[in-house]
Specification:
This protein has four helices and nine strands; from the N terminus they run ααββββββαβββα. By secondary structure, the protein is an alpha+beta fold. The strands form two sheets. Strands 5-9-1-2-8-7-6 form a seven-stranded mixed β-sheet, with no helix packed on it.
Length: 227
């Protein structure tokens, strides 16, 4: 696993472009936007081929995402019985990387990890389930996305634990962590294996106009790291 930071990638790309064109200048923001674009494409492709599951290190964990109570109107669940309570994440969630089946979320659990939540893509499905006679025996905890927040029916937890692959800065959720504690975005490390980082950087350079030869199907044993 690479210990490369976002700043390292930006500097490396900038230095490589200088070797090809004298008048080019790219800001860190421009390079990072290209990085996010190509990281999403590579990760989605690997996910479609089932090659990402074994690389658990690419997933990051938000250990304490605080929840707050809301009413049925805000949860868009007017059809659910009034005794149902709803909680949602206090802050909007950072953007997840899109995979083959939607946002790259590995798990959403209680903060101690003992109880998992099942994500529902369609709120109408949950409304339908609650009207079934045997739903009262269903102990599964559910949640859904709405306006960049997670919503949880019949959960009294103060917070949840979320594990996924994120495109956005997650430092605001990790300021009590020993690792990337409140670091500026450029100083944060990338949870990306070297072979994936190699392909992403080569594709960034290709976008800029510098053609580098990369394997058609990059694999763990076919590493082409840019240094």
């Amino acid at each position: 696993m690479s210990q490369t930071t976002i700043g390292d990638v930006c500097s490396r790309i900038r230095n490589l472009t200088k070797g090809y064109t004298q008048d080019s200048f790219l800001t860190d923001r421009e390079i990072y936007l290209l990085f996010k674009k190509h990281a999403s494409l590579v990760i989605k492709r690997l996910d479609e081929k089932g090659k990402l599951v074994k690389f658990s290190a690419v997933f990051e964990t938000l250990d304490y995402v605080e929840l707050e109570e809301v009413d049925r109107v805000e949860a868009t669940c007017m059809g659910i019985k009034s005794y149902t309570t709803f909680r949602r994440t206090k802050q909007t969630m950072p953007m997840f990387t899109e995979g083959a089946m939607g946002p790259m979320i590995n798990s959403i659990t209680s903060i101690d990890g003992s109880t998992a939540c099942q994500i529902i893509r369609n709120i109408d499905l949950y409304n339908y389930m609650t009207r079934q006679k045997n739903f009262k025996y269903n102990d599964t905890k559910y949640c859904w996305f709405l306006n960049d927040r997670l919503y949880f029916p019949n959960v009294s937890w103060p917070a949840v634990r979320v594990e996924g692959i994120f495109e956005d800065d997650i430092s605001q959720f990790k300021c009590c962590d020993y690792d990337d504690k409140c670091k500026p975005r450029q100083q944060q490390s990338l949870n990306v294996p070297d072979y994936i980082l190699s392909e992403i950087e080569a594709n960034i350079l290709k976008d800029i106009g510098i053609q580098l030869q990369i394997p058609e199907d990059v694999g763990q044993g076919n590493v082409n790291v840019l240094r």
